[in-house]
Amino acid sequence: MKKDNINRVEEVLKQSSRKFPEITGTWNPVIGCLHNCLYCWARRYAARLSKMGVEPYASRGFQPTFIAERLRRRFSKNSFIFVSDMGDLFGEWVPDRWISRVLDKVRMTPQTLFLLLTKNPQRYLELGDLPDNVVLGATIESNRDYPSLSNAPPQSQRIEAMKKIEHDHKAIVVEPILDFDLEEFTRDVKELSPSFIYIGYDNYGFNLPEPPLQKTSQLIQRMLEFTDVRLGTIREAWNVKTDY
Ligand code: SF4
User: Which ligand 1 atom is the nearest neighbour of the CA of 119?
Assistant: First the structure.
């Protein structure tokens, strides 16, 4: 990473008492996704917006769409922006030229930090040259594969891709958390060396194959030994009987 960009990123990080600042906004120059995860909140939200007549959802639904005018948006200095939370910018179906236009805008905005998040991190490797002012994120809900829940590349492939990526700041999102193997998952995440990890249970009642709370607490403790941990919804698994 170039020195002036290191300094800018460090400046952003200093704004927070934590190692990484909180997300300050979202930006959706590309929307839509074909991974068709069973538990997708974005698809449901897009359907709601579509019914309300909100564009581009009213005309495009959740189909992959590039919204060129959103490239004109201005970002405040030192903000931390989540890119395309209403889709997957790095899905196999996304044309290179859409990604290039988005990344060019990111490069032209060096005083802002951007979070990229995908279930197809292999695409980061294929693209190669990525801007310095991004955190490369991957959603990896478990070390185990769950092909019946999504058409996205399996979790094991995502882990291997993230291990190969050399970038100063990487992030892992374990949400919605799915049952995992404690030792293997801890070892994998440690090896891919994230700047932070976000962990949370499903928020929408999909009755997913969740780990019991005690196991998740152990995972959190283990992750805290080597990275910054953020927590989403933390609760008992839906299928665990409790006395309270
Ligand atoms: S990858 Fe994300 S946006 Fe795409 S279907 Fe799955 S949850 Fe939804």
Answer: 1
3-state helix, strand, coil in the chain (%, to 5): 35, 15, 50
Residue 122 CB neighbour total at 10 angstroms? 19
Query: For position 44, what pLDDT does the model report?
Result: 96
CATH architecture of residue range(s) 3-68+79-231:
Alpha-Beta Barrel (3.20)
Task: State whether the beta carbon of 152 lies less than 6 angstroms from ligand 1.
Answer: yes
Beta bridge partners of 116: 136
Residue 38 CA to ligand 1 centre (angstroms): 9
Domain boundaries, the chain: 3-68+79-231
| DSSP assignments along 135-152, one per residue | EEEEE---SS--TTT-SS
- What tokens does 171 get? 């992030």
Least confident of 4-13, 27-36, 82-91, 212-221: 4-13
Whole-model pTM: value is 0.91
**Strand (E) positions, 46-106?**
65-66, 80-83
How far apart CA 187 and CA 92 sit, in angstroms, is: 28
- CA 133 to ligand 1 center in whole angstroms: 24
